[in-house]
Design brief:
Belongs to the ABC-4 integral membrane protein family. The chain is an alpha+beta fold. The protein folds into three domains: 1-190, no CATH class; 194-320 and 523-660, no CATH class; 327-516, no CATH class. Helix content is 69%, strand content 10%. It contains 20 helices and ten strands. The chain has helices at residues 3-16, 18-43, 45-50, 54-93, 98-139, 151-177, 181-186, 199-218, 222-257, 259-262, 265-276, 278-307, 309-316, 332-352, 397-404, 462-475, 496-510, 523-576, 581-619, 626-659, and strands at 321-325, 357-373, 376-378, 390-396, 414-419, 428-431, 434-440, 454-459, 484-492, 518-522. It has a seven-stranded mixed beta barrel. The longest helix is centred in the last third of the chain and has 54 residues, at 523-576. The relative contact order is 0.12.
Length: 660
């Protein structure tokens, strides 16, 4: 037998199993297209040169899509080979040797992989410009990103998926190489034993879920959220699988023991059918639940970040113009003189440009990093353990009153303070060699103070900051860490063009490239980069959300088809003993409700418990509006549920068309 025979046989097999192969080819094509588009963004020269933040984002997206591609194609391929086992067993009975069957599967894999890769690359070229138009809109760049494709991107995409499809071929061959053809032929008729519910697994599922939820609910600050987020996700994923595998069996067995529920024709069929296949059902439901959770979190958070871009920009840069003055640890008088002289110089420069200062804020401060031991602030070994250290900002009362518009007065041994976690309840605090009696105030300093445990201390005058600097320098004589710095922020009148020209001149004189002891930052000049980053996040969130939605849709479809083929013979037997079609529909409807509601409900619960840790992560992007995230969350849940409902309506019809 020559290769032409096996290739013809492979094509005939694909056509005869088109109900399975068409969704498989479409899903493979979609995933290849998405990876190719993301890789095109990663290697695009304009993206690399225009914004330093976009390339790392698209690299993460490419890696995530690549990993998902491997898992998803292997997972969907397992459904195909499961349906083919009886057919492969029949080939063995008819006299085909295993090497002949392997050759036939090779051509099937070759045809499907070539078609998927070619279609995916072609779709990527066709839809590439549309995707780049969307990216241009989200990033708000002054110049459009031009779509381009490099040979390296094409070769890398082709190489990855050749490897993935090669693995599927080896897996398919392994399914019958060591199996008896008779066993393959009768494998579908052997049935499954009733699964045994494990109380230990059920308890473990609750422990893992409770552990993951507990991390989210007790997370102290955003910096801790970064390190513990992935641990919480891993624990919830493990808990979800154990919950579906063990908890669902307990529920079904409890329903089975209830005679009033179980001994009704529709309930009898649906409960018995789901119980005997619950191991497979549980994994599928858990996969759908996890993918749904990913979609909801990815899309809702990135939408929130993008919608709040302007607010977060203002939180990051409170004024249109912001100047940081770095202090000299050996010469405070020089920095203090520069602090007042620079304000006058900036006013003069503003007037020279034909503008007017409409609002200004300036203050000097000292930044310390250490720990609280009782009622004493110390700088010691805690610095080696960031989770035990806090940041302290010390300001003079004169600058604090100007900054806030208050008129506080303090004695020489008094101080105002703010503690971000509200856990410091002492009446006194010793800093350096001096002890202060404390009065608590609200946070009128910076939103960034709430990112990690922080403390602000307002002292009677600037001399107290100098004394603290001197005290700690005695303790640590070999360091230049202790400095008194300053911030100046101001707004001006004028048009956007005039303000932008003013900002560019100051940036040339005091920006990063200029060096020196003063550093200028402009909200106007940073807006482009800010929207680029946030737009990149939104694009990545939508892209990954679409990817996970495709995964959910395909898992749902293949699961319904697989269940349909498994149930067809059983329902045909039931029809022969008098069960009508209406009863079959009633029994399948309860399974659909079970399959539809459970993953969505559990996913919503997961995301609800994830809110505290997601909220902390959003603070790192400057997002302080909880209403926006809540509305995004509700909107994404409803949109995903609607898509899922429509897909399930379609797949349920496919299921019923098979079983009837």
């Amino acid at each position: 037998m020559n290769n032409r025979f096996f290739s013809s046989l492979a094509l005939r097999n694909i056509k005869s199993n088109k109900q399975l192969y068409i969704p498989y080819l479409l899903s493979s094509t979609a995933i290849i297209m998405m990876l190719y588009l993301m890789a095109s963004l990663l290697t695009n020269k304009f993206v690399q040169e225009r914004s330093s933040s976009l390339s790392p984002l698209f690299l993460i997206g490419t890696i995530v899509i690549g990993i998902f591609s491997v898992i998803f194609i292997l997972y969907t391929n397992s459904f195909l080979i499961k349906r083919r086992k009886k057919e492969i067993g029949l080939y063995g009975i008819l006299g085909l040797e295993k090497k002949h069957v392997a050759k036939m599967l090779f051509f099937e894999t070759l045809f499907t992989s070539l078609l998927s890769i070619a279609a995916g690359l072609l779709a990527g070229l066709v839809f590439g410009r549309l995707v780049f138009m969307m990216l241009n809109y989200l990033l708000r760049l002054p110049t459009d990103i031009t779509y381009s494709s490099s040979p390296i991107t094409v070769l890398a995409t082709v190489a990855l998926f050749i490897m993935i499809f090669g693995i599927t071929f080896l897996y398919n061959v392994s399914q019958f190489t060591f199996a008896n053809p008779i066993k393959l032929l009768k494998g579908k008729q052997e049935g499954e034993k009733e699964p045994k519910g494990s109380l230990i697994l059920f308890i473990l599922s609750l422990i893992f879920l409770g552990w993951g939820y507990g991390i989210s609910l007790t997370i102290p600050d955003p910096l801790s959220a970064i390190s513990k987020f992935f641990l919480a996700v891993l624990l919830v994923i493990i808990g979800t699988y154990l919950l579906f595998i063990s908890g669902s069996i307990f529920i079904l067995k409890a329903l089975k023991k209830n005679k009033r529920i179980y001994y009704r024709p529709g309930a009898f069929i649906s409960i018995s059918g789901m119980l005997f296949r619950m191991k497979q059902n549980a994994v599928g439901l858990a996969n759908i639940c996890i993918l749904a959770s990913m979609v909801i979190i990815a899309v809702s958070t990135t939408v929130t970040i993008f919608v709040e871009s302007e607010e977060t920009l203002e939180n990051r840069f409170p004024y249109e113009n912001n100047m940081k003055l770095f202090g000299d640890p050996e010469n405070f008088d020089e920095m203090n003189s520069r602090f007042f002289n620079l304000q006058e110089r900036l006013r003069e420069k503003t007037e020279t440009m034909g503008l007017e200062v409409t609002e200004i804020e300036s203050y000097r401060y000292e930044s310390l990093s250490g720990g609280l031991q009782g009622n004493q602030f110390v700088i010691d070994g805690n610095l080696a353990e960031p989770e035990k250290s806090i940041n302290m900002m010390v300001l003079p009362l004169e600058d604090f009153n100007k900054m806030t518009g208050n008129s506080y007065s303090l004695a020489d041994d008094e101080a105002l303070y703010y503690h971000s976690t509200k856990t410091y309840r002492e009446d006194e605090l010793t800093v350096g060699d001096k002890t202060y009696r404390l009065t608590e105030v609200d946070n009128e300093f910076s939103e960034e103070m709430d990112l990690t445990e922080s403390m602000a201390l307002v002292l009677p005058d600037i001399s107290h900051l100098m004394n603290i600097q001197a005290d700690f320098k005695k303790q640590f004589p070999d360091t230049n860490y202790f400095t008194i710095d300053a911030e100046i922020g101001w707004n001006t009148s004028g048009t956007e063009e005039e303000k932008n020209e003013f900002a560019e001149q100051l940036n040339d004189e005091y920006g990063w490239d200029a060096g020196g002891m003063n550093l200028y930052n402009s909200r106007l000049l940073q807006r482009e980069e800010w929207y680029s980053t946030n737009g990149g996040f939104l694009f990545l969130g939508i892209f990954l959300g679409l990817l996970f939605t495709i995964g959910t849709v395909l898992i749902t479809y293949f699961k319904q088809v697989s269940e349909g083929f498994d149930d067809r013979e059983k329902f045909q037997i039931m029809q022969k003993v008098g069960l009508d079609k209406e009863m079959i529909q009633e029994s399948t409807r309860s399974q659909i409700v079970w399959m539809f509601l459970l993953p969505i409900v559990i996913a919503t619960i997961h995301v609800s418990f994830a809110y505290p840790i997601v909220r902390k992560l959003l603070l790192m992007f400057g997002v302080t509006n909880e209403t926006t995230w809540l509305m995004s969350f509700i909107g994404v849940v409803l949109a995903f549920a609607a898509i899922y409902w429509m897909i399930y309506r379609v797949t349920s019809k496919v299921y019923y068309s098979i079983v009837k």
